Amino acid sequence: MMRPPPLITATSFARLPDALRHTGEPSPWAKLTRPGQPMHSFLEAAFFDEASNLWLSDVPYGRVFRVSPNGAWEVMHQIDGEPHAMRIAPDGRHIAVDYSHGLIDLTDKASFEVLSTGLPDQPFMGLSDMTYAPDGTLWFTDSGRTSLSDSTGRVYCLPKDGELRLVCDCVPYSNGICVSPAGAWVYVAATRANQVWRFSSKLPETGMPMVGTFLNLSGGLGPDGLATNDMGWLAVAQAQAGRAYVFDALGLALAEVLLPEGLWTTSVTFHPDNPTKLYIIDAQFGAIFTCDIPFQ
C-alpha cells in the first residue's frame, strides 16, 4: 500500500483589500453561480509574470488584478465582461477568455477587442480557462454549464499563426488547463467528473485525439485550476474542498495542501523562481495562500 502524501497547511500571502471588494448588487454571473448570496469578488486564473507579479481574474466584476511581490494590489483591467482567465501572450498582448464575450484582447484598461466567438457553426458556450504552450499555441476550455448529464464541454487550440481548432467536445465541464513543461501533454480538469484528463499535444491531422484519465479525485466539486512546474509536477485546485494537490509526472501524489480558511479553491500556480513554492487562490475570502512542497 502506498503511503499517503505529506499533509501541509498553507499560510497567508495576501488578501483582496476592502477598498476593492464589491459591495453593490451582484452581477448576473454572480447570481447564477451563487444564487441569493453576496459576492465581493471571485478570483481565478493565477499566474506570474516575468517580474514575479501575480495576476488574477475577478470573473463577476470584469476585473484583472496584479499583485506585487510584496502583496500590493492594482486593477490592471476593468471591462463590461466576465474574464475567467487572462494570460500575457508571447507577443505581449493581454489575451483573455471571457464567459460572455469569447476570446478577447484586453487592449486597454477599460477596453477590449473580440478575437473569436467560436467556429462558424459552433459558438462558444462560455469560456473557462487558458494556457500558452512553449511553442506559442493557445489552449483553452469552453465549459458553459455542462456536467455529467450534458458532457459536451469543449477544448480548443489556436496555434501560433494558425486557425482555431476544436480538440474535444465530450468533457463534463472542461475547466482548468495546462501543458507539461516541454509542451508534450495537455492536462484538462473535467470538473463535474472529478477527474483530470490528459492527451498528447501532437494532434491527429483530423478528428479528435485519444484522451485518457490521468487522475481520479474525490470530494468537493472537482478539480478547477491546474498548473505545472519545470519538474513536471501537476498542481490541482480542488474546488469547494479547501485544498490543493500536487502530483509528479507519473501521477503519484506528492502533497495535499489544506487552506487555513475558505473552501472555494479555484486556482494554483508555482512561483517562477522557486518551482517547489505553490500559491493557492481561495475565492470565498478573496485570499492568496502559499506553501513549500517538500522535494526529495
Provide structural commentary.
This protein is mainly beta. It has a single domain, classed as TolB, C-terminal domain (Neuraminidase, 6 Propeller), CATH 2.120.10.30. 2% of the residues lie in helices and 49% in strands. It has one helix and 27 strands. The chain has one helix at residues 28-33, and strands spanning 7-9, 11-15, 43-48, 54-58, 63-67, 73-78, 83-88, 94-98, 102-105, 113-116, 118-119, 122-123, 127-132, 138-142, 153-158, 165-171, 174-179, 185-190, 195-200, 212-216, 222-228, 234-239, 243-247, 253-258, 265-271, 274-282, 287-292. The strands form seven sheets. It has a five-stranded mixed sheet with strand order 1-24-23-22-21, with no helix packed on it. The chain starts with 6 loop residues before the first strand and ends with a strand. The mean pLDDT is 96.
Largest beta-sheet characterization: 5 strands, mixed
Tally of contiguous helical segments: 1
Order of helices and strands: EEHEEEEEEEEEEEEEEEEEEEEEEEEE
Sheet-strand content, in percent, reads over 45%
Percent helix range: under 10%
Quick rundown:
This protein has one helix at 28-33, and strands spanning 7-9, 11-15, 43-48, 54-58, 63-67, 73-78, 83-88, 94-98, 102-105, 113-116, 118-119, 122-123, 127-132, 138-142, 153-158, 165-171, 174-179, 185-190, 195-200, 212-216, 222-228, 234-239, 243-247, 253-258, 265-271, 274-282, 287-292.
Descriptive keywords:
49% strand; 296 residues; Neuraminidase; 5-stranded mixed beta sheet; mainly beta
